[in-house]
Design a protein that fits this description.
589 residues; alpha+beta; five-stranded antiparallel β-sheet; 15 helices; elongated
């Protein structure tokens, strides 16, 4: 026996497959571990960064609240001074001369210097504005300003009904924050005036941001002001301010893109001063240690993959060497230079393989000889079968001769029965390989079949056929009506005592479907059966198999809705019907 030649160069070798597979497995495992390590570590660092940033934000907010409390606590000190209190409680503008004004403003300066605010150096000036419009003003630091114009602008923004400390930002001075407090007489509760402290916003934020990493920045903002701890972060702060402010006293934390860089940012709204405070830190800075570690890990990963590749090559060579030797001997056998494989004394599995291969060669020789003899016998049987095969045209010609003989002796019934039988055989032969036929052809087949059955049972069966002419050219599945007619006659009308009636009704509805219904008044069904579960028997296996096949064909062609539907009242009326789409175009065979 000659085995088929083994083609070379058409597919990868086992050695390369083992090498690539081992390398890929090691690489994928290491890459997955790298991704897992990075994600887990970055998640830990993100949580740590979130806690650190929120802690820094809370520290800044506590510092801001402490400073606001410090500013608010200074105001009673000014009211404790009798000179200032008298000027506010009993204002007499005609008595406020240069000397008196100087004395009051000097008292204001002395009181300020005795407070903790003076050492923090973020207060620019202090205003005392009486209800009569008198303005007392003292500088603590900062540049000179137009006192009268500034005081009028601030008064327009102050709500005189507010009892708490107010934070005001005049449009003309974006670099300062003004804290204002309405002043009331402690005895009468009468409004006496307003005290205003002008705070340098930049100095104040820098004071609150002591100890903050230089790469981080703090932003205090609302619709009128945006104060930064680092002036170089103006663009980042503007984009941060455009984000949605946190609701209530809650702290929001998010990862955002600011000026092309990624930041972790935490923000909180301070209702006391109407500002939102935010702390932002570069993500790259927070994850710097992780990235440095990852670089070292990638170097180790590359070295591990290289070692795995070398190991895979060595392992693959050790595995494939005996295989190469076996392939060589198989090629020798295929070339006719050997008849069996020699013992493979490398691995036990290869010895078993060689022994089994030799046994297979022996079995193939035996099978080849037996199969050759069988093929000769089969060929002779086919020749004999072809020689004895009867030509269908010979059958039709014989039937036509019988019909002609019957017509010659004026036996019209035999003539019509032979003609009908010939047409049935002809249509069965022609339509055997067709999936669809016109309804008109199917009805011709049905009429021939019913005629032969009527001749068989004489006057026992009467039949009516109702088919709209508009449906005659529609395509229907081949032989889809005949099994139903045969079932009605064989199982319904033949066992019935007395005459039976059969009706073939085809109707078209408005949805583009036609309903084909076979009705008889035969013995019917005591219990409506499931066509799929009807068991065949020796007497009626043909009709039952026909119904099963028709039901399955209809389901495959048109879906579950096209399956056979059966209704029956025993000895009164039994109907079997199905509904299919109206198909007027020519169907393929």
């Amino acid at each position: 026996m000659k085995s088929a030649l083994i083609l070379k160069g058409k597919s990868p070798s086992l050695r390369s497959f083992i090498t690539i597979t081992v390398s890929l497995i090691v690489t994928i495992v290491l890459l997955l571990s790298t991704v897992f390590y990075y994600n887990r570590t970055s998640a830990v660092l993100r949580n740590s960064s979130q806690k650190s940033i929120i802690s820094q934000l809370n520290q800044v907010n506590e510092q801001i609240k402490d400073q606001i409390a410090s500013i608010d606590s200074v105001i009673p000190l000014f009211l404790s001074n009798n000179i200032i209190l008298d000027a506010l409680e009993d204002p007499q503008p005609e008595n406020i001369n240069t000397n008196n004004r100087f004395q009051i403003e000097r008292q204001m300066s002395f009181i300020y210097c005795s407070t903790p605010l003076s050492s923090k150096n973020f207060t620019n000036s202090i205003y005392l504005i009486g209800d009569d419009g008198t303005v007392f003003h003292t500088y603590t630091s900062g540049n000179l300003e137009a006192t009268a114009e500034k005081s009028r602008e601030i008064l327009d923004l102050v709500d005189k009904s507010e009892s708490r400390l107010m934070c005001i930002t005049p449009p003309s001075d974006k670099e300062s924050i003004y804290f204002a407090r309405n002043l009331y007489n402690s005895s009468t509760g009468r409004h006496m005036g307003i005290m205003i402290l002008n705070i340098d916003s930049a100095k104040w934020v820098r004071y609150c941001a002591k100890g903050l990493d230089p790469a981080w920045f703090i932003s205090l903002y609302n619709q009128q002001i945006n104060v930064l701890s680092n002036p170089e972060m103006t663009e980042q702060s503007r984009e941060l301010q455009a984000l949605a402010a946190p609701e209530g006293e809650s702290i929001s934390f998010q990862e955002v893109e600011l000026a092309g860089d990624t930041y972790f940012a935490a923000a909180q709204t301070l209702d006391e001063i109407g500002l939102t405070s935010a702390v932002a830190a570069p993500k790259e800075l927070l994850l710097k240690d992780l990235n440095d570690t990852l670089k070292s890990y990638l170097v180790l990963l590359a070295a591990t993959i290289l070692i795995a590749l070398i190991a895979a090559i060595i392992i693959s060579r050790a595995i494939t060497r005996p295989i190469d030797k076996m392939v060589y001997h198989i090629n020798e056998i295929s070339g006719g230079r050997r008849s069996t494989l020699p013992p493979m004394k490398m691995y036990h599995e290869f010895d078993v393989w060689a022994e089994s291969f030799n046994q297979m060669l022996e079995q193939l020789d035996i099978y080849y000889n037996d199969n050759f003899q069988k093929q000769l016998l089969l060929k002779n049987a086919e020749i004999q079968a072809l020689q004895s095969q009867m030509d269908p045209h010979f059958m039709f010609n014989v039937l036509n001769t019988i019909a002609w003989k019957a017509q010659m002796i004026d036996n019209e019934e035999i003539y019509q029965m032979v003609i009908s039988l010939g047409e049935l055989l002809k249509m069965n032969t022609i339509s055997k390989d067709r999936a669809f036929v016109p309804l008109e052809k199917e009805m011709e087949y049905i009429r021939f079949y019913i005629y032969l059955q009527q001749m068989r049972f004489e006057d026992k069966i009467s039949c009516t056929i109702q088919v709209p002419p508009s449906l005659l050219q529609c395509q229907i599945p081949c032989f889809c009506i005949q099994p139903l007619v045969e079932n009605a006659i064989v199982h319904g009308l033949e066992p019935k005592k007395g005459k039976g009636k059969l009706a073939v009704q085809i109707l078209e509805n408005n949805d583009g479907y036609m309903e084909i219904c076979i009705v008889d008044n035969g013995v019917g069904f005591a219990e409506i059966p499931d066509v799929r579960s009807i068991a065949s028997s020796a007497e009626d296996s043909h009709t039952h198999i026909g119904l099963k096949n028709l039901d399955k064909r209809l389901e495959l062609l048109f879906g579950e809705e096209a399956r056979l539907k059966i209704s029956s009242t025993p000895n009164v009326c039994t109907s079997i019907s199905f509904t299919i789409p109206v198909k007027k175009e020519e169907a393929s065979s």
